[in-house]
Amino acid sequence: MSSFQAQLSSAIRAARLAGDYLQNSFASEKLVDARTAHDIKLRMDKECQSIIRDALAKDWPDYSLLGEEGGSGGRIEWIVDPLDGSVNYFYGIPLFCVSIALRVDGVAQLGCVYAPMTGELYTALRGETAFLNGKPIRVSSRDLMQQAVVFIGHGAHDGSGEEGIRRFAHLSSRVCKIRILGSAALTLCYVAAGKMDVYVENCIHLWDFAAAQVILESAGGQFEFSPCEEDPLTGAVIAWNGHLPLHSALNFS
Predict the structure, then answer these.
(1) 97, 187: one domain
(2) Is the pLDDT assigned to residue 116 strictly greater than 60?
(3) Sign of the C-alpha dihedral, residues 70, 218, 135, 151?
(4) Which of 116, 137, 158 is the last residue of a domain?
(5) 105: domain range?
(6) What is the pLDDT of residues 69-90, one digit of tens each?
(7) How far is 48 from 85, CA to CA, in rounded Å?
(8) Same domain, 194 and 103
(9) pLDDT in the model for residue 60
(10) CA dihedral defined by 213, 180, 120, 196, rounded to 10 degrees?
């Protein structure tokens, strides 16, 4: 039995607090702190990270916090994405989530992902059962690519666009469906719950996947991360149900 059940309970409370704030503010005007050609940074991101940080610090004042909106790492650290799916949130698309993991000596020990608009709470302790709203979940048993529902990312601002689009085109006629949800953590949880089968992305950050990785692996899925040389917190991700011949399917010239 994991020794991190109390920490998971704290993560759930913090995620629900931030999620309720996001849900209550969903119809309000959104303040933009920064905008690029393909991304938006909202004031809400910082406000939610503050909510999470304060809630976790009440229970675990000696832990550090590393998140999308800053923070510093340590031996025991919370890894937080306060609003995964900011563009969805800004445009009124109800596919976004709060993501919280606890990492100890570089290994994530728990994951909590909360999607407030759908009421979905995904949780797991490393090496134990993964849950959706308290009910156990497992990855799908699909083993044929033509049956698979696949997420293929093709970022336009991070240098991965051209290769991602080629991969998208390569797989689109070989799988059942391709979906892009706009939230990495939520997509990985969908793979964990058997709703989707594959997630492939060339450029993703630690806080985008840390919690969902624990949930996916606890649900029987496979996860591979290849960090960038210049930034070990960023890199390429391949995640799937463990049954599909994914590596061979991704080979193309």
Answers:
(1) no
(2) yes
(3) positive
(4) 137
(5) 5-137
(6) 666 667 999 999 999 998 899 8
(7) 13
(8) no
(9) 97
(10) -70
Percent of the residues in the chain that have a pLDDT greater than 90, as a whole number: 66
**Strands 76-84, 70-72: pairing kind:** unpaired
Number of neighbours of residue 30 by Cβ within 10 angstroms: 15
DSSP code for 32: E
- What CATH number has the domain bearing residue 204? 3.40.190.80
Inter-residue contact 79 to 67 (CB < 8 Å): yes
Q: What is the pLDDT of residue 37?
A: 44
Residues 194 and 241 in one domain: yes
- Among residues 137, 158, 190, the one where a domain terminates is 137
Q: Is the pLDDT of residue 158 over 60?
A: no
Residue 154 has pLDDT above 80, yes or no: no
- Judgement on whether residues 102 and 210 belong to the same structural domain of the protein: no
Over range 150-170, report the average pLDDT.
68
DSSP 81-144: EEEE-HHHHHTT----EEEEEEEETTEEEEEEEEETTTTEEEEEETTS-EEETTEEE-------
Amino acid sitting at position 215: I
Contacting residues for 186 by C-beta, under 8 A, at least 6 apart: 84, 85, 95, 96, 97, 113, 115, 212
Domain total in the chain: 2
Distance CA 205, CA 233 (A): 6
